[in-house]
Amino acid sequence: MDYVDDIVNDLDQQAVAEIMKYNTPSLDNYNDVTSVAIELGKRLNANLSVIKLGARFLDIKLGEATEQKKTNEHVNMALGFAKEFLAGYPLEEDIKQKVFACITEHHTAKFTCIESEVCANADCYKFLVPKKILRMFYEWRNRGYNFEQIFLLAEEKVDERWKALTLDICKKELEDNYNKIKLFLDVARKDPVNFVTIEQQVEEKLRDGE
Ligand SMILES: [Fe+2]
Fold first, then answer.
1. What is the 92 CA–ligand 1 centroid distance (Å)?
2. pLDDT (tens place) for every residue of the chain, 210 residues total
């Protein structure tokens, strides 16, 4: 275990405390974004020390910012948290700066290092994997959203995150998922009676000899 893994252990403890307190981001998303970012980082020969830290910081203040009704501030809040947290460790300055870039650039389309681009793309998997969409309905219900609100948000997030992908390997891997999720959400907009009516129309046409 190297030094960064020691820092990661300390960070995980603080992140879990934030997650338990604010219920956002979910522990599931915190872990998944990190795992995806590390896998992408390996494939793109990125610096894994930066990614292990950067991915964990991205939304670490999302819950607190959301509770204070300033969700857009979660990036600056996470940056402040990361600067204070990492000040306690003798980490190389170059690594620290790249970790900060991962945080500040994770909702942008311009990246100053590959690690930052990897983290931003990994963050998009939250809404481009079927299991995550189903889990979103479950988790957002627990946060007080009703079915229609979650449905609308799911439709929005799927498109938003698909457009935000910048890495070709991610676009290639997720294109099929994106199309299937879009189709499913489109079909899911229809009420059961719509399907019955279609069947009836076919039967009527058959009776009429059409
Ligand atoms: Fe974010």
1. 25
2. 588 999 999 999 999 999 999 989 999 999 999 999 999 999 999 999 999 999 999 999 999 999 999 999 999 999 999 999 999 999 999 999 999 999 999 999 999 999 999 999 999 999 999 999 999 999 999 888 999 999 999 999 999 999 999 999 999 999 999 999 999 999 999 998 888 876 666 666 677 665
Q: Is the peptide bond before 25 cis (omega within 30 degrees of 0)?
A: yes
- The number of residues in the chain equals 210
- Could you tell me the CATH number of the domain that includes residue 18? 1.10.3210.10
* Distance of CA 180 from the midpoint of ligand 1 (Å): 25
* Domain identity same for 62 and 142: no
- Ligand 1 mean position, distance from CA 104 (Å): 9
Distance from the alpha carbon of residue 198 to the mean position of ligand 1, in angstroms = 42
Ligand 1 centre to CA of 42 (Å) is 22
Query: What is the pTM assigned to this prediction?
Result: 0.90
What's the domain range around 59?
Answer: 1-127
